Amino acid sequence: MGPNYSHQTCLGVYQVGTLATFQNGLLLIFFATVLLFYTTSLFRKTNKRKIPGPGSHFLGCLTNILALSDKRKSLKVFESWCATYGPIFNVNLGPYKIAILNSPEYIQKLLGSTDMGYLGKGFAYKPLKPLWQDGLILSKGEKWKFRRRVLEKHMFSFKTLLTYMSTLNEEGDKYMLKIGERFASGKEEEVEDLLMNYTLEVVTSAAFGKSVAEMDSFANGELNITDTINRGKEIVATRAFNPCLLLDFIWRLHPLYKVERIVIQSLKLMGAAATMDNRVIPGKKYRAGIKDDLTAAGVPVDGIIEESLTLMSAGYETTASSIHFLLLLLALHPEHQEICRNEIDSVFEDVDLCPSGQLQFRALSKLKHMEMCVNESLRLLPTVFFFERKIDTPLVLEEDLVLETGTEVAFLVQGLHKNPKYYPDPEKFIPGRFSEEEIKSRSQFAHIPFAAGPRKCIGYKFAMMIMLSFSAKLLREYVLETTEKLDEIVFLPNVTMSPETPIKFRIKKRLNK
Ligand code: HEM
């Protein structure tokens, strides 16, 4: 062997004999292959930690679609996935693979970032597009940024929010009377339709300076806003939960496709009515609405229509359902109702905070227990139970855990909100979880009923004002009771979370005021 190994280089042994050269060549190839395999597997390990989840086995796509096929059970399935799979997991819905972020730390990395690559919406919003067009919820990039800035400045600034108090008082008082009439017999009744009409009224007044009746008169009585939006919801929920129906050629064969055409026509009427100038009636003062401000900012008529439809659809039903769930939880917890009522009484009896029974903006900040109850009810029963992004910039969660560009990333809000690490005894209604100290001790990304970060709900402060002022007026006048049991109510994933059957209340006039 001696003479053949006489020439050595730093890279290895240079052979003179042919056989030796061949053998060593094989060895070299072998080692190179091992090295390549090792480094690529290392590379894979550093960049693609295996993400667990119900969709990670080879039949995942089928089992996940089947698991969600029964709408009565789907919200519970979401919750059980969140409880089982930890801070991140994959769900596989046919052509769509979705990474679910299920820990405040990971959620903060995406929602807390201002990177425009994290602000785009994913496949689940496709059914909304024909209805809401390219309004704020669906738009992205510079268009979204500009419209968001204009709407924040004109519709949701502190100064503008203050002006909504008069509508909240006026409409609130009107609906207290309607509630009194509905429940006068002492029988159990539903209240959801009244809440929907009330929030529709306050949102249209704020956004367009018009009442619902005025909007309808502009459309020559052809418009039923509630029906239009309810049918729209049915269409969106049907498509969103059946990935096949997201394919346009299949959707066109579905019976609801024809209904969608009618809903689109009706929405066009609604958008047009929202943007019409108010009739001049001597002595009548209108709110300005967003039209003039958006026009002045250079938004074209089509843009004003799409933003009007978006604000109305996004704002009224979410808020009505959130009040509905709050009333349910207060009816189930008379002890908290009573604490709220004491607090409300002291506000109503203060002539500065509530002159002539009209709640002032700063009165709302005194309703501390009420606000904790609102936050706790949004934790337990978050109306918007799901939202999603499609990322255009890689998202580094850990050194070895990176979500690539193009990944669909979703948030299952109720599952996150029931993590015992952040909310011990998560099924219980404990408003004290939202005391100032408790809030400070927890990541703000552990409570996301309005999402979070730059694309957080633009109307959340307005929604809080509506919820607080309405429930304060209600508890001042009435006592809420129910024979419902929370764990027996089936909630459906109808775009927003809705009870399968109407929730019944007994709302009695208060005797000890
Ligand atoms: C309790 C009531 C409400 C809840 C729970 C709620 C929840 C949410 C959530 C979770 C998002 C984020 C959705 C996503 O990222 O896809 C959102 C966005 C939005 N919400 Fe709300 N919302 C409420 C009330 C309102 C109100 C009163 C308005 C307006 C009048 C409104 C208008 C909007 C708009 C325009 C967006 C899109 C913001 C953007 O993408 O920049 N919402 N809302």
TrEMBL record:
Annotated positions binding heme:
C457
What sections of the protein cross the membrane? 20-40
Q: In the UniProt record, does the keyword Iron occur?
A: yes
What's an example of a GO molecular-function annotation for this chain? iron ion binding
What's the cofactor? heme
The answer on whether this UniProt entry bears the keyword Cell membrane reads no
For this UniProt record, the keywords arranged alphabetically read as follows:
Heme, Iron, Membrane, Metal-binding, Monooxygenase, Oxidoreductase, Transmembrane, Transmembrane helix
Q: Which family does it belong to?
A: Belongs to the cytochrome P450 family.
Name this polypeptide is given: Cytochrome P450 4c21
- Record the organism: Orchesella cincta
